[in-house]
Amino acid sequence: MKEGQFVGYFKMKEQRKIPLTHIMIIGAFIFAFLQVVLLASLVHAVNVNNEIQEGLFQSGRIMVESLQHILSVQTGIN
């Protein structure tokens, strides 16, 4: 290969562009990955919310039982 041919070959390699379909496929994979991450965040948030509600329910139940006990002791009713 002569010197001029090598430079021409190198310029052809530099000018080669990524096809639009490859860019769209890469974009679709990135979009799908972000959807999975967002779905995982949503599931985690719902689980945390359910745990908070369960904790509030348990503490409310304990409070009601304590209040019933206090009232039964004060009134003498079991």
TrEMBL record:
Keywords, sorted A to Z: Membrane, Transmembrane, Transmembrane helix
Origin superkingdom: Bacteria
Residue ranges of the TM segments: 20-43
Protein name: Uncharacterized protein
Lineage: Bacteria, Pseudomonadati, Pseudomonadota, Gammaproteobacteria, Enterobacterales
